[in-house]
Amino acid sequence: MTSIAASELIINSRGAVYHLDCLAEEIASTIITVGDPDRVAAVSKHFDTVEVKNQHREFVTHTGYIGKKRISVVSTGIGTDNIDIVLNELDALANIDFATRTIKENLTALNIIRVGTSGSLQRDIPVDSYVVSTHGLGIDNLLNFYRHNSNEEEKQLVQSFITQTQLNNNFAQPYISSASGALIKHFVDGFHQGITVTCPGFYGPQGRVLRLGLANPALIDNLTAFTFGQHRITNFEMETAGIYGLGNLLGHHCLSISAIVANRISKEFSKDGGAVVESLIKKTLEIISDNI
């Protein structure tokens, strides 16, 4: 089997993967990703024990146990550019032999669950509620750098999305990927579900106006109004489609869960976003430790 070059898989002086600075044995098979590096400790404080703490740049990793369940929590930073790093390096830790730089014969499927914040695009999904993403619909272009195929329904959904939102090739070629059925079935009670749009920025790409005008000023209204069969867009943020897209291509089980801290239709923002995130962390850890 062909060895992966040192320029392609970068391993540091302690034998760890470059950006995450983690060894294979330091990562559990169930992983929570968070955007904010400070949120890693907000998750791991609920562990019964913590056995690993690593940090390199914005990538913080804690691994420990709740009961007999081993869990890692990893910060990604913001955006699908960072998701490209984190998903590829987590997969490398699980599925590449660093000694020989070759892909392992028997591959490991990880459970990767994003716990983050998001803005609602529907009036009936209020601030301080939770959304589970059935799909990640990316307008960030990440997955278009990889070979990927869409099924017929996905192709039709994306084409309908382009038509209804007028997000043509001047912006990006949208792509869509689905959540893991094995994971989403555990996150039903107390969760809204729908399509999450992943944007390449926080201001203009999410329809915010400060001093710059927008190329597509109707974006928010068009996203809110979008329908395809029973599907609608519930929220948007900056990581989900990248996680779903790369996760599915690599054979992992991925799920994105968001605390809604803003409602872009009612123009509301949570009065205590920290409290709703803390509540979501507790609920997610309980579901993981009991079911996954």
Brief rundown of the structure:
The protein is α/β, with parallel strands linked by helices and 292 residues long.
Structure description:
This protein has 292 residues and is an alpha/beta fold. It has one domain (24-291): Nucleoside phosphorylase domain (Rossmann fold, 3-Layer(aba) Sandwich). α2 runs parallel beside α6 (240-250). It starts with 29 loop residues before the first strand and ends with a helix. The chain is globular and about 50 Å long. It has helices spanning 38-44, 80-95, 152-165, 181-184, 219-225, 240-250, 273-291; strands at 30-34, 49-56, 59-66, 69-75, 96-97, 102-103, 111-120, 130-138, 175-178, 192-198, 227-228, 231-237, 253-263, 268-269. The strands form 2 sheets. Strands 7-12-10-8-13 form a 5-stranded mixed barrel. Strands 5-6 form a two-stranded antiparallel sheet. The chain has 7 helices and 14 strands.
Which features does this protein show?
about 290 residues; Rossmann fold; two-stranded antiparallel sheet; 14 strands
Write the layout of secondary structure elements.
Blueprint: E1 30-34, H1 38-44, E2 49-56, E3 59-66, E4 69-75, H2 80-95, E5 96-97, E6 102-103, E7 111-120, E8 130-138, H3 152-165, E9 175-178, H4 181-184, E10 192-198, H5 219-225, E11 227-228, E12 231-237, H6 240-250, E13 253-263, E14 268-269, H7 273-291
Parallel strand pairs: 1-4, 1-7, 7-13, 8-10, 10-12
Antiparallel strand pairs: 2-3, 3-4, 5-6, 7-12, 8-9, 8-13, 11-12, 13-14
Helix pairs in contact: 2-6
Total domain count: 1
How many DSSP H or I helices? Answer: 7
Mean pLDDT, all residues: 96
Shape: globular
